[in-house]
Specification:
binds flavin mononucleotide, about 170 residues, four-stranded antiparallel beta sheet, alpha+beta
Amino acid sequence: MQTWEAIRARRNVRSYDGRPIDDDTLEHILEAARRTPSSMNQQAWDFVVVTDRERLQDLSKVWRHAAHVARSAATIALVAPASADPDERETFQFDLGQASMSIMLTAADRGIGSCHAAVADQALAREVLGLPAERECMWLISLGHPADRPLTPIERPSRRAIDDVVHRERW
Ligand SMILES: Cc1cc2nc3c(=O)[nH]c(=O)nc-3n(C[C@H](O)[C@H](O)[C@H](O)COP(=O)(O)O)c2cc1C
């Protein structure tokens, strides 16, 4: 797939067909995460990749809208240093947002569906992932072969109109 095709084909996929993701594709996706730009190149993130079914099922309980994680072929936990400093937290969130899109577009490029999940129960996430006390699991990105239909460019995405969101020269 070309970049433009991947951008248009990516959608949140919550149902997977049960096939594993081949090692080369999974490593490719993780390499994309590693190459993500970050504020001052701090790379404060860590990525925990989970493929064990029982662990995925446990991980899916960290948030009530994370059930898709249990059925995924793999889920990448986006981990950042635990911080009480709002500026630092904001920077980590921005950097992880960029990592999320790197992961999702690279997955789409290989025909792999992906879906975000927030993390509400930090204690459970820490226990399931074995995180040290000074780290927090900020987001989960689940991955798998789409069960419904292959990823193809979406002609009419559910988005605000271009003239509504884009302001040219001035608001
Ligand atoms: C910051 C963020 C958090 C999200 N959290 C969840 C979530 O916890 N569970 C879920 O099923 N989807 C989650 N989503 C997916 C959004 O609902 C989805 O991206 C949006 O509805 C647009 O759908 P699309 O990605 O298929 O275009 C999240 C997306 C973002 C950007």
